[in-house]
Write a structure and sequence with these properties.
The protein is of the alpha+beta class and 542 residues long. It contains 13 helices and 20 strands.
């Protein structure tokens, strides 16, 4: 990369001195340069105004200007240009004054050789470049902090203000830095606020440990209390001694108020969900029907038990057990996609349809067809993709038969205490689409005989999909194993044992989906069955 030559302006009214300087520079300069001469202040100022000057060599005595005035006018015309004074007067006070006012050096003619002059020129130019770079960085930093909405300030060891950005000046109700320099919080804020600020700052400076993201109370320019998030960091001088601190505060009042509104809203939602859960639990069967009502010795009778556990406050699983006649009962289980309030609302729709159509629930296939038509019609008006799996089982103790139909639901398990067999009640190819997917689906009914000691276990997929900490699912194999190990237990204890197996498997992992199990037993009236003594397993309250 090509380096531009150093552009030098020599302000000297002595032509011979100017020519001599030109010869000196030609022989001794460390870099390429361009030399321009001016023999009067006016012409020098014109050259500076035109720009393109990097370094000024200035004689103070000119035909149209003398002494310090010469320097001050040149300095004012080009404050960013390196400037060396060449004077015939050895005046220490004048030299100090000029250096303090911006000159890079003060050299006495006749007391500096050419090498010393060139070295001074090089140092002056490089020092000026460094100062300009530093000034640009300071300007960038100042622009940054003055445009930040956060309050930024610097304090001395006595907690007095040394520097404030524009935002903090507004909080201090000051128009300029000078109005608050040397003041403390006690001069501006109420005593109770200032005491807290001062104590925190002295602790930071004494310990050398920063205070990070402390929530504290502040005041805005109108005197209104605000919530602040403040960080204060101690400053150290090169020797490691404390020299003050830097602070930055962010107004989080709007955030705190929004959080409070969210907390209140969340509490209201939680109360609504709790009420919804209580309603949902109230709608679940509490008493099971007695089928038949007056069983004769040797006849078949039905027994029921269940557990239901939503993943959240309310759930999308739904079941009901209804008496269809003296010798028949219907068991309905449904699972709306998803879980939580959204699914619970859809479940409420499905429950209403169930209750409206239950008088037509004798034939499972026909009944699911009716439910699906009405359910799909409701969903069509929502523009939402929603579906629900369902299984409906009708048991007849007089005919000793089960009639059932499925709408995309996991096939229930049929377990026999007599034969120890456990098998799916439905083949996968006999399963039909879930409710709500197609309004013209026709569901088929299937029939099979039942016998004493048969168990029908209807469940939702949340059971088999329940994961443990290793993301393994409980699965169909473990479900069948839990049932097989509990076949000799009374029906209620069997369902508790299955729930315990699920809870032991998943451990502390929260349920990602609702779980529901409805168990129905076919028993012979008056029959006795040997059973192992087993302790009652309480239902887990996860």
């Amino acid at each position: 990369m090509e380096t531009k030559p150093l552009r030098i302006l020599l302000v000297e009214d002595d032509h011979s001195a100017a020519r001599l300087m030109e010869e000196f520079l030609r022989d001794a300069m460390w870099t390429a340069y361009e030399l321009t001469c001016a023999n009067r202040l006016a012409s020098a100022l014109e050259a500076l105004e035109a720009g393109g000057v990097d370094l000024v060599l200035l004689d103070l005595v000119l035909p149209d200007s003398q002494g310090f005035d010469t320097f001050s006018r040149v300095r004012a015309a080009a404050p960013q240009v390196a400037l060396i004074v060449l004077s015939g007067t050895d005046d220490e006070a004048l030299a100090l004054r000029m250096v303090q006012s911006g000159a890079q050096d003060y050299l006495v003619k006749g007391r500096v050789d050419v090498q010393g002059l060139v070295r001074a020129m090089r140092y002056a130019w490089e020092r000026q470049q460094a100062e300009l770079a530093l000034a640009r960085e300071r300007q960038l930093l100042r622009t940054l902090i003055d445009n930040l909405p956060d309050y930024i300030f610097v304090k001395d060891p006595a907690s007095r203000f040394v520097l404030n950005n524009a935002a903090h000046l507004r909080v201090l109700r000051a128009a300029a830095q000078e109005e608050v320099l040397g003041k403390s919080d006690f001069d501006i804020f109420p005593r109770e606020l200032a005491d807290g600020y001062f104590a925190d700052e002295q602790a930071v400076m004494d310990s050398g440990k920063p205070l990070v993201n402390r929530e504290e109370v502040g005041m805005d320019p109108a005197g209104k209390h605000r919530h602040l998030l403040t960080t204060k960091v101690p400053l150290r001088d090169p020797a490691g001694h404390g020299s003050g601190l830097v602070g930055i505060s962010r107004d989080i009042t709007d955030l705190k108020e929004a959080e409070e509104k969210l907390r209140a809203h969340a509490a209201e939602i939680q109360r609504d969900l709790q009420i919804a859960r209580e309603f949902q639990e109230a709608l679940m069967p509490r008493d099971y029907p007695q089928v038949p009502a007056n069983p004769a010795a040797g006849s078949l009778q039905l027994g029921f038990h269940h557990f239901y556990q939503p993943a959240l406050s309310v759930g999308g699983d739904f079941f009901d057990i209804v008496k269809l006649g003296d010798h028949r009962a219907g068991v309905f289980v449904a699972d709306v996609m998803g879980h939580g309030a959204h699914s619970a609302l859809v479940t409420a729709i499905l429950r209403a349809l169930w209750q409206d159509l239950v008088h037509q629930a004798d034939d499972p296939g026909h009944f699911l067809t009716l439910i699906n038509q009405h359910f799909a019609a409701v969903l069509a008006r929502t523009n939402e993709f929603i579906f629900a799996s369902a299984f409906y089982l009708v048991l007849d103790t007089r005919r000793a038969q089960a009639v059932f139909a499925s709408a995309g639901h996991p096939p229930p398990l049929l377990a026999s205490r007599a034969t120890r067999r456990i098998e799916p009640l439905l083949r996968p190819e006999d399963n039909k689409p879930a409710l709500g997917l197609m309004n013209n689906t026709r569901y088929n009914s299937f029939t099979r005989p039942v016998a004493a000691d048969d168990l029908f276990l209807l469940y939702t997929d949340g059971i088999v999909e329940a994961p443990n900490a290793a993301a393994e699912e409980f699965g169909h194999k473990r479900l069948r194993g839990a049932i097989e190990r509990s076949l000799d237990l009374p029906l209620e204890e069997l369902t508790h044992a299955v729930l315990r197996a699920i809870n032991e498997f998943i451990g502390p992992v929260p349920l990602p989906d609702d779980i529901c199990l409805v168990a129905t037993e076919v028993a012979a009236v008056g029959a006795t069955r040997a059973k192992r003594p087993v302790a009652v397993v309480p239902v887990s309250e996860r």
